[in-house]
Specification:
Length: about 270
Amino acid sequence: MQTFFCAKLMPVVGFLLTLMTPLVNAANPKIAVVIDDIGYRSSDQDALALSGQFTFAIIPFAPLTQKLAKAAHDSRREVIVHLPMEAFSNNHLLGKGALFADMDETTIRTTIRKSLDNVPHISGINNHMGSKFTTTAQPLSWLMDELKQRSLYFLDSRTTPQSIAEQSAVDYGLETAHRHVFLDNQLDHDYLNAQFDKLLTIAHANSYAIAIAHPHPQTIAFLNNISDKLKQHNIELVPLSTLLPMTTAKAERRQAPAPISNEQPKQAAPQ
């Protein structure tokens, strides 16, 4: 009799567990915080001293590129290339290895390969500046092809709302995501706190959220004290790659064509 009732109950238990699984996931949102512009200053090492699974976006050909990429990797954190790309202004700030939309294919591919080779232990890239380059389809296609050959992911920093870079990554079958919040466009504590709260709100709504920050002393001091707030909100700080299954699936859904309706168009009633 006991075996009979257990057999009867098993499908019910399985069904209840299925219902509970989304609730568990929804109750445990995740965030990724990418720290850009690593490699120029010795003070950038302070970012690596942060505890937690921050993702470090390292500029190629900077004075400390190799050292800090290795240090981040040795501390079991994720490393990506912060690849300079043409903007609509201030391109004098790009530095060596920048991609420009008017470059020919050979030059773009060669430049990309040199930059990727210059940063060890990489899992992906994001764009440094790039408001112009990320709106230009053909150069983006060459970039995404190079990333695909190395099985690297692409994070769109979204330096312009007109960016088509994430869409291009989907076209090439890459894992991809985009930034939700810039944490430190201003450096006072109230602004940093408000932006971080915005990030947590997005994470609660979507199950995940992605921020970009920079190795300013004020930002590092702020990030050094976020663990209690994360615990209060039951939110986990994870490497960016942890979010890619969710972010890529969402990007693919956004790009999928609308289903074709079988419904016949309605004819206007006779006048």
